[in-house]
User: Fold this.
Amino acid sequence: MATRDSGGGQQHTNRREDEADEVQAESTDASDLKERHEKLSEDVDSLLDEIDDVLEENAEEFVKGYVQKGGE
Amino acid sequence: MGIETEYGVSVPGQPNTNQMLASSLVVNSYANRTSAPGSRARWDFEEESPLRDARGFELPREPAVDPSAPANEDDLGLANVILTNGARLYVDHAHPEFSAPEVTNPRDAVLWDKAGERVMAEAARRALTVPGTRPVHLYKNNTDNKGVSYGCHENYLMARSTPFGEIVRHLTPFFVSRQVMCGAGRVGLGVDSREAGFQISQRADFFEVEVGLETTLKRPIINTRDEPHADPEKYRRLHVIIGDANMSEVATYLKAGTTSLVLAMIEDGWFSVDLSVDGPVAALRAVSHDPSLKHLVSLRDGRRMTAVQLQMEYYEQARKYVENRFGADVDPQTADVLARWESVLGRLEVDPMSCARELDWVAKLSILEGYRGRDGLAWDSPRLELVDLQYHDVRPEKGLYNRLVERGRFERILGEDEVTRAITEPPEDTRAFFRGRCLALYPQQVAAASWDSVIFDIGRDSLQRVPTLEPLRGTKAHVGELLERCATAADLVDALAGR
Assistant:
């Protein structure tokens, strides 16, 4: 049992390193990531406009008034 | 399995609202308009309260406040009903709660949990038609950011023979880390948001101990409450109190699906590794407080890894387990849970924001970061706290999660037509089918019901109690035809008694 455990652990360590390499390789492809983030932020801008329309008015008072009693 | 959710309740402009009254109004509004007059079946506390053991079946014919029921359950005239989908809708402490019917798989857990949101939205709409009432808002979240938390509990039926120590050992690290998928996101750090900031989980800051029975004080990561509502010799109920209430269907699906897999492995004695972490309560918070997902958790075996990597360890165990036990015969849903689990973890590791269409905390954070960028808001801005709160509003036109879905910005697992059916129809493969269908077919004759019984009043000397102790009996396959054949509850009772 102990042998099997430590064997598994060893394999895992190797695999982690491989994964770390992959992660690095992927994040060096910075232009791709930047592009994705730009598209995401465009999306977010139009999303915020939509949300502005439905957000409750007077945020400060609204969240201050949200007081609950314990449950469970 | 099944999910019970307490909803936050508020009447804007009236901060001093009696929340028990408001909750009761909501529940009663739904119950009164849904069922025929005078037909509201009451909850049967028989199996739930030791006070009731000697009571027998001499129930009052008219539903009434029962003085021997636990005090917190009969507040304000028993706002406590059973729905035709097999769910229980009631007031728990000062919150309306939807306890979803028992289901056999994670997808159905998502379906009836979502139906619960629709029930709550409809209940609040109906409450509005009561003259003189102000709008009641309901939120499927877990904290008011002022020190109070309320729960979304998962329940899993397990074999009684599973050693509890094994459950604690293997489930604790899993619960410390699963929030990276199932966190609902929260603005504010500390139970009363003492510090400004964003964290992954609504609940993490409210947990103080590793194991215990409490749910309202000194909350434990592993809760030991064990009323199986079934044969206690055979089953235990694992009552999971650590989860956030999720809006996201994918998050709820992964929460129920991955937890079920881990529990199956524990029951089966599969784990050959011990992933115990040092100081799990502190680790739970540290993981929640780091949305960059870089925090390293220390394992007892000396290794240090992120919560995502810790989840990956569980995923690997589960993948091997399923391969070993089922091979090519694996059912499609289990295969799907594994595939989504791996996919989400892989993407969280590389770029968490790539999960913004699937996970609540990521979606919420991306909105919040948007506001911070556009309007230059600091983390203590009330507007950001409002976004956090309103994300969970159950109204389709106001809830931010619901707006995201409406605009196709959120991935769904369910179709809205099946959600609509689940508002009134029970799951077909558990005892919830019998409970729900009896309520639908014989509303005037069901005097009371609970998880493990349905009690009929068919005008005989005593009430007729039909026990439903076995969760996998009373399914459509078992009783569907019988129920179709019985025009009245008396016919049904006679048929069950073999008369």
Notes: Confidence is low (pLDDT under 50) at residues 1-27 of chain A. Helices of chain A lie at 2-28, 30-54, 59-65.
